[in-house]
């Protein structure tokens, strides 16, 4: 038996539940009777289309000329608050504004609000654009730039060289930002072993200055971080405004670690670029600057080794040639040839010296023998050897005359060999005869006392 049909499947139109009519006003909508989204966008468009054109004032913060397009677009920002809208205009309207229409220009424009139903966006269509001079925002940035430049924060002397191969790279970037991947991928491709210390922070908006400054200070305090990269990857002038704030610029200037700024594209120039040690045009350019290319370095190393080996080989060839020239010289083939003449001269001088020394020694020996013979002939010992003796009183005086002693005096007799003690028994006066004859009274008897030891003998000159 088939299952019964539900009320929605009932083929009888009369028995189907009644569908409520769409609400005429937004206030009449309910959960059971909502408006389709198209109904809302249609009503918004009707309301916006009823608005009359009006004049608004603002500052151009993003404008990229695109020649050949039928419509130009720029972003208009409120002068005092963080409010902006996209403005579209025909290129001729902007051409009439003059050459000063660019990012940072302050303008007054007559616009008509336009609501795009399919995208649900509200834009402005400009019919007239008139310049009001340089934008206050960029004027304040320019004034700050001049003040910081006068302080020397942008001076070239403050720039630090980037390390050849950093141990750790500090990276300050947005959360899940493409700039982060650009730096990581390209740096790792160049040097696979590179290490990163990453700090993901807000890179635009009201918290950007505080978070980027804190990340810089934190990475600068890590001793292993050798270089710091601040990467964003471009954006509108409005998005890059935090990187021209004085607080962030001074925080970057206080960093002691080499700093690379990679927050804009080629045309962007925030103040952080000026205070950084190196300004990279893109995050990819920053990756190329912070680490070397491993393949290129290996190739350079290989070439350097080849050049070194070639230089060493050439040097060896040159030195071998010089050595062969030296070995071919006669003096090296017979080294003694240089000194042979001098050796002969030395031998001749040695022989002459020996002959002169032998002759001189012979003469000196002869003179010494003569002097020795003379000394022997006149010495008291020689006189004693001939049989004479010397008499000396106990006081040590030599007896030269019989009058010098008396009978009974003891005398010391000094002989050629030994000594004796004698006693005087009598004296005989001297006679005029040239050679006196000793009398019997001068005979001496040998004392019974022993003679003094030889070490007490005092040699006296008998002629005194």
Fill in the keyword field for this structure:
OB fold (Dihydrolipoamide Acetyltransferase, E2P); 14 strands; 5-stranded mixed beta barrel; 5-stranded parallel sheet; 4 domains; alpha/beta; 12 helices; Rossmann fold; 464 residues
Give me the side-by-side strand order of the main sheet.
1-2-3-5-4
Helix/strand structural class: alpha/beta
Distance between the termini: 185 Å
Residue share in β-strands? 15-25%
Query: CATH topology of the largest domain, what is it called?
Result: Rossmann fold
CATH class category of the largest domain = Alpha Beta
Please identify which CATH superfamily of the largest domain we are dealing with. Hypothetical protein af1403, domain 2
| Corresponding CATH architecture of the largest domain | 3-Layer(aba) Sandwich
Task: Pick out the low-confidence regions.
Answer: 439-464
| Radius of gyration of CA atoms, rounded to a whole number | 65 Å
Number of strands: 14
The largest sheet, given as strand count, sense and whether it forms a barrel, is: 5 strands, mixed, barrel
Number of helices: 12
How would you describe the overall organization of this protein?
The protein has helices at about 35-50, 90-95, 135-150, 180-190, 210-220, 245-255, 270-275, 285-290, 295-325, 330-335, 335-380, 380-385, and strands spanning about 55-65, 70-75, 85-90, 105-115, 120-135, 170-175, 195-200, 225-230, 260, 280, 390, 410-415, 420-425, 445. The protein has about 475 residues and is an alpha/beta fold. It has 4 domains: about 25-135, Nucleic acid-binding proteins (OB fold (Dihydrolipoamide Acetyltransferase, E2P), Beta Barrel); about 140-290, Hypothetical protein af1403, domain 2 (Rossmann fold, 3-Layer(aba) Sandwich); about 295-330; about 380-455, no CATH class. The strands form 3 sheets. A 5-stranded mixed beta barrel has the order 1-2-3-5-4. The protein has a 5-stranded parallel beta sheet with strand order 7-6-8-9-10, sandwiched between helices. A hairpin with a 4-residue loop joins strand 4 and strand 5 (about 120-135). Helix 4 (about 180-190) packs parallel to helix 8 (about 285-290) and helix 5 packs parallel to helix 6 (about 245-255). The radius of gyration is 65 Å and the shape is rod-shaped. It starts with about 35 loop residues before the first helix and ends in an 18-residue tail after the last strand.
């Amino acid at each position: 038996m088939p299952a019964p049909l539900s009320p929605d499947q009932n083929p009888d139109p009369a028995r189907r539940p009644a569908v409520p009519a769409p609400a005429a006003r937004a206030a009449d909508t309910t959960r059971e009777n909502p408006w389709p989204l198209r109904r809302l966008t249609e009503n918004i468009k009707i309301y916006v289309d009823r608005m009359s054109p009006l004049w608004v004032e603002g500052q151009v913060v993003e404008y990229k000329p695109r020649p050949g397009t039928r419509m130009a677009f720029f972003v208009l920002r409120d002068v005092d608050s963080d409010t902006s809208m996209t403005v579209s205009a025909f290129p001729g309207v902007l051409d009439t504004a003059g050459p000063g229409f660019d990012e940072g220009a302050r303008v007054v424009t007559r616009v008509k609000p336009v609501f795009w139903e399919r995208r649900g966006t509200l834009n402005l269509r400009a019919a007239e654009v008139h310049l009001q001079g340089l934008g206050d925002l960029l004027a304040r940035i320019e004034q700050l730039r001049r003040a910081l430049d006068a302080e020397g924060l942008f001076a070239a002397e403050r720039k630090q060289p980037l390390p050849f191969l950093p141990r750790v790279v500090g990276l300050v970037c947005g959360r899940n930002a493409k700039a982060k991947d650009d730096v990581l991928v390209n740096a790792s491709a160049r040097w696979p072993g590179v290490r990163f210390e990453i700090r993901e922070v807000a890179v635009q908006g009201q918290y950007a200055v505080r978070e980027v400054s804190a990340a810089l200070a934190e990475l600068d305090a890590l001793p292993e971080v050798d270089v710091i990269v601040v990467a964003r990857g471009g954006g509108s002038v409005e998005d890059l405004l935090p990187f021209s704030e004085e607080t962030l610029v001074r925080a970057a200037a206080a960093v002691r670690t080499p700093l690379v700024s990679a927050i804009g594209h080629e045309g962007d120039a925030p103040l952080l670029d000026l205070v950084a040690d190196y300004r990279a045009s893109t995050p990819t350019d920053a990756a190329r600057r912070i680490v070397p290319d491993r393949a290129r370095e290996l190739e350079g190393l290989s070439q350097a080794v080849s050049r070194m080996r070639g230089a060493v080989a050439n040097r060896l060839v040159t030195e071998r040639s010089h050595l062969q020239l030296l070995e071919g010289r006669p003096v090296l083939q017979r080294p003694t040839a240089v000194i042979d003449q001098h050796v002969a001269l030395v031998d001749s001088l040695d022989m002459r010296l020996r002959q002169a020394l032998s002759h001189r020694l012979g003469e000196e020996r002869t003179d010494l023998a003569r002097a020795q013979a003379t000394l022997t002939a006149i010495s008291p010992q020689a006189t004693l050897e001939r049989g004479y003796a010397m008499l000396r009183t106990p006081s040590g005086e030599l007896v030269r005359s019989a009058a010098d002693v008396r009978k009974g005096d003891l005398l010391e007799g000094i002989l050629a060999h030994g000594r004796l003690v004698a006693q005087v028994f009598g004296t005989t006066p001297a006679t005029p005869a040239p050679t006196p004859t000793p009398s019997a009274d001068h005979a001496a008897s040998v004392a019974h006392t022993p003679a003094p030891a030889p070490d007490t003998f005092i040699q006296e000159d008998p002629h005194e």
